[in-house]
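Title: Prediction job returns without error message
Component: structure pipeline
Severity: low
Priority: P3
Assignee: unassigned

Description:
Job completed but the reporter wants confirmation the result is attached to the right record. Sequence as submitted:
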Amino acid sequence: MGKHEKGSAKDVANRAKAKGLQKLQFYCQMCQKQCRDANGFKCHQTSASHLRMMSILRENTGKIIDDFSEEFEKSYVDTLRQRHGVKRVNANNVYQEVIQDKHHIHMNATQWESLTVFIQYLGKKGICIVEQDERGWFVQYIERDVNSLKRAEKANERAKAEKVEEEKATRRMEKQIIAASKAQGVREVEATKMLRGEGESVKMSLGKGGLSGGLGAGGGVKRKLDEVKLAVGDNNNNNSTATEPAKKSAKPLSAVEQIMLENENKKRREQEEKEAIERRRREEEDRASALRKEEKKKKGKRKDYWLRKDIVVKIKNKELADGKFYKKKGVVETVMEKYGAEVRVKDTVDVIILDQDDLETVVGGLNGKVMIVNGYGRGEEAELVEIKTEDFCANLKILETGELVKNVEYEDFSKMP
């Protein structure tokens, strides 16, 4: 069936569908082609162009997958850094932003089986601070750009300068309030207790000025209060004692002073919160730096070759002898020029020469004897103490010294016969 006429309703609908995001399971990463449904994807898999790309993939699988993994890591980290900075965000939300691009590198084309494994890889590499709680995995980018750090330092200095200016303005305002109060003749009076000596009476009188009022034009009611005397007698002079001096009461705050005090308390709380956040961030950076240093120390002896005599290996070359030895295990009898080895296949008399790229390590069982073939403790015989399947690593105990080496990756040790 031919294509619909250009400009027709069906053609416009098809173009609109092709522009938007579609199902990831129907996307071919090698051909960079998005199929609409399962039938279209099946037809694409049988096409000559797809088969040609698959033959290229078979010839250089490792390099192509590494390139895809590197591009996916770069796009994820760039999205996290540019859109969220150093904020703590949900890892899945960042992934949803990455896949908004129709032609993004898909996860199934990389070396990571899931987003969780990828997030753990970022934390292990020291690119992000990785945390997990009941809501899922969270990531926080660790800023290492010199220019960004300088900008953050200048922003902190500017904030400190603004704080100093605010304090100066506050003190200036207080002085102005005091000066204005003095200029208007406002006198502060403190309340005290009434004191009298023994046997004395207290008298209060009002002035002779009176109150008057009238009703009508010619007369009314006139009242005059000449004098009012209040005498307080001392009925118990024998038992009376002199009163103690009154304590000065606290000066009440004015409305302006209360507002200023509230503002100062609010600024102090905000500053304490900022300092707490900054302190937690520095602690996380120090912890991540210590982990990176420890990781670097342990990986200081890493080499690009790992073959050792008397270790068990697994053959992963499918093309060798038409797949006869694929996934077969064997023992390395001789190491040839660091990168090759003579391997005696188990349960057979065959001895074959293989490159290390055609072999992989064998983990073995718990409490079994293994040899560290790369990284820290290279060449040492050890006991397999704990296997961490989720992190693809294990804890080993070196037999000679009894030292416990944690989080040794699977490819850095192998079972011994």
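Comment from assignee: result matches the submitted record. The longest strand covers residues 329-336.
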